[in-house]
Specification:
The chain is built from 13 helices and twelve strands. The protein is of the alpha/beta class. Helix 2 crosses helix 4, helix 7 packs parallel to helix 8 and helix 9 runs parallel beside helix 10. It comes from Stenotrophomonas geniculata.
Length: about 350
Amino acid sequence: MDKPKKSVRRRTAGVTIDEVAALAGVSPMTVSRVINQGKVRDVTRERVLRAVRELGYTPNLAASSLAAAQHTRIALIYTNPSGAYLRELLVGLLRVASSSAIQLVIDYWDNLDAESERRAARALAGRVDGVILPPPLCESQAAVSELVKAGIPVVAIASGRLSEALSCVRIDDFSAGREMTDHLLRQGHTRIGFIRGRDDLSASALRYDGFVTALREAGLAVDPGLVQHGDYTYRSGLAAAEKLLSQRRPPTAIFASNDDMGAAAISVAHRRGLEVPRDLSVVGFDDTSAATTVWPELTTIHQPIASMANAAVDILLRTIRRPAADATVLRDHVMPHRLIARDSVAAPPRRR
C-alpha cells in the first residue's frame, strides 16, 4: 500500500458528521442512524457508508452515552506485556472518563491462574457496573464466565474469538496480516520472516493466517524456519530476530506481530551491522509509540486502540442503561485498520 498523503491525514482528523451528511446528501440524523445500526433504506445506508469511507470519518461512539454515565463504574483489567499498547488504551479510556462522570477502575492481574482469576472476578463484580478486557484477558474463560454469571456486562478488546457471552471491539486481524504481507511481496520480498505473538490469543493466530494466505496466493510456500515465536514483548522480539538473522539464508524482511517486537528486530539488525531498510526490511503491527521511537520508523498496521476503548465504553453504557426487561444485546464491532508506510521497508538487496 502506498504511503498516505499527509494532507489526507490532516483532513481525516477534522471530519465531522455534518460533512459526511453533506457528501451523502442526507441529514446528520440519518448518518447517526447508519453509524448506530438504526433502520434506514439499504441504498441510503450504502451512500452514507461510502461517504464515511471517502472522508475517513471515525465517529465518537461514546459521545451519545456520556451524559448518562453518572455514577457508572467501569473497570479495565490488564496484564499486557506491551507497555506501548497499554498506554494507547489508557489514553482512550482517560479521555472518556475526563469528560464524563464515569469512574474508571483499573485492576492489574499479574500471572494469575484460572482459579485466582475467578476469585478476582467475583470480588470485582460487586464493585463495578461493567468491565473492559484487553488482551490477553479478553480470552480468559475463567474471568469472563464469572463476570457474566454475576450479570456484569463485559466488552473484549482485540479478540478474534467471537463469543455468545460478551461483546467485542476489534479490527480484522486476518485482512490486516494479509495486507501487510502483500505490501512486502509487492516490494519484491519472497523470503519473509514472521515473528508470531502469543499462541493463546486468537488475534495472533489470525495475523499469522493472513500472512500464510498472502504467501500462498503469491505461489510461495511457508518456510517453517522463517517463523519464530514471541509473546508481544520487546525481549521476545530480540530472541526471535536473532534466530531469524542467524540462519544461513536469512530473510530479507521480517514481519513482527506487534511494534514492540518489530522495534526489537530493528535493534538486532543494527547490532549485526545491517542497515534497515537497505539490507533488511522490518514491519510491525498496532502503530503504537514503539513504532515511531525507533530509527527508521516502523511501517505498521494502524489499530485505532484509543478509539476502540471509546467504542467499548459506549457499548457498556448502552448495555448498562437498557431496561431490565430487555434482552442483552451483544455486539461485534469491527473497526477499520490501515497500513502506515514509513521508512523501514524497501526492495530486497538483490533487486537493487
